[in-house]
């Protein structure tokens, strides 16, 4: 015996959902940006107009750009900058290690050094080295060297000691910050493996601390290049001294100061580029993929979207 079962009626097909109307985005108008841009452009126009109307012999700047005296002053500036930074970095590392030491004597001496040289202006320190001849007539290192103080403390040595010893105090704090940024567990693990304290610093701690030390050190190099202009106080022949001498002899004083500023800008730009690539080198262990350099970005733009993306 069969029973008829009514099949349920199939539901009617649902109508397709209505497509939402596209959103019409209205950009927010930033009137303040336009006002700020106009104000800045106006100030730049006034500045350019002021220098254009002034009695500045702009032709003298390229004329004396490669003057022998100017180039000599530039070489001396770069030389004193490099040597002062070498002294500052080497002595700064030593002071940072001394600050980390458990020996109370070395730790206290390092703290006093940093306290003194960071607390007194470098300009005062330069004058102090230059005038120590009024206190000491001779320098006498018993078995090694003996001479009159005026012959020993030359303008170059005054500049080197004044800049280098002052920089060591700042580099000590930079290096100490880099050393303390490394986890102590790595030092304990290295000691557990039988590595000495010195080898642990060289092989484990310092390579990792460089990522923290390099950026502020690069800034210190650039700052040292500009601070070296203070050595004119101790009669050291640097770029600023050369520019003043040439300007006084040729009657273009302001123009030579602008020329000196241009050379300082060129030198600091070169140092900034070197700092950028040095930071990339030490950032390899912290970033899986480094951002492209400006030259790489420019090359990608010049190559076009097809070459940069592989396929269109």
TrEMBL record:
Coiled-coil features, chain-numbered ranges: none
UniProt KW keywords: Cell membrane, Membrane, Transmembrane, Transmembrane helix, Transport
Membrane topology, as annotated: Multi-pass membrane protein
Regions crossing the membrane: 34-52, 78-98, 110-130, 256-278
Record keyword Ribonucleoprotein present: no
Pfam families reported in the protein's UniProt record: BPD_transp_1
InterPro entries per UniProt: AA_ABC_Transporter_Permease, AA_ABC_transptr_permease_3TM, MetI-like, MetI-like_sf
Ranges for domain ABC transmembrane type-1: 74-275
Cell compartment(s), UniProt: Cell membrane
Subunit comment: The HisPMQJ complex is composed of two ATP-binding proteins (HisP), two transmembrane proteins (HisM and HisQ) and a solute-binding protein (HisJ). The HisPMQ-ArgT complex is composed of two ATP-binding proteins (HisP), two transmembrane proteins (HisM and HisQ) and a solute-binding protein (ArgT).
Family classification: Belongs to the binding-protein-dependent transport system permease family.
Full protein name: Histidine/lysine/arginine/ornithine transport system permease protein HisM
Native species: Streptomyces lunalinharesii
């Amino acid at each position: 015996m069969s029973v008829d079962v009514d099949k349920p009626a199939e539901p009617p097909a649902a109508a397709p959902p209505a497509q939402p109307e596209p959103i019409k985005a209205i950009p927010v108008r930033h009137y303040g940006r336009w006002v700020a841009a106009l104000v800045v452009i106006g100030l730049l126009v006034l500045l350019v107009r002021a220098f254009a109307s002034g009695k500045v012999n702009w032709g003298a700047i390229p004329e004396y750009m490669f003057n022998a005296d100017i180039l000599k002053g530039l070489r001396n500036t770069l030389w004193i900058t490099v040597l002062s930074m070498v002294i500052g970095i080497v002595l700064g590392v030593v002071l940072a290690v001394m600050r980390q030491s458990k020996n109370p004597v070395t730790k206290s001496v390092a703290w006093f050094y940093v306290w003194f040289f960071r607390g007194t202006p470098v300009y005062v320190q330069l004058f102090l080295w230059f005038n120590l001849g009024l206190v000491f007539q001779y320098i006498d290192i018993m078995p090694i060297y003996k001479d009159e103080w005026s012959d020993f403390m030359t303008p170059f040595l005054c500049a080197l000691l004044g800049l280098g010893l002052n920089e060591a105090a700042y580099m000590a704090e930079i290096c100490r910050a880099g050393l303390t940024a490394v986890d102590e567990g790595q030092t304990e693990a290295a000691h557990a493996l039988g590595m000495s304290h010195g080898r642990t610093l060289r092989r484990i701690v310092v390579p990792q601390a460089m990522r923290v030390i390099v950026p502020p050190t690069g800034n210190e190099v650039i700052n040292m290049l500009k601070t070296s202009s203070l050595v004119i106080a101790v009669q050291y022949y640097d770029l600023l001294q050369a520019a003043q001498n040439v300007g006084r002899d040729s009657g273009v004083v302001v123009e030579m100061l602008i020329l000196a500023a241009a050379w300082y800008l060129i030198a600091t730009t070169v140092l900034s580029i070197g700092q950028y690539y040095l930071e990339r080198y030490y950032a390899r262990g912290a970033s899986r993929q480094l951002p492209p350099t400006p030259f790489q970005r420019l090359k990608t733009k010049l190559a076009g979207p097809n070459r940069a993306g592989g396929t269109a």
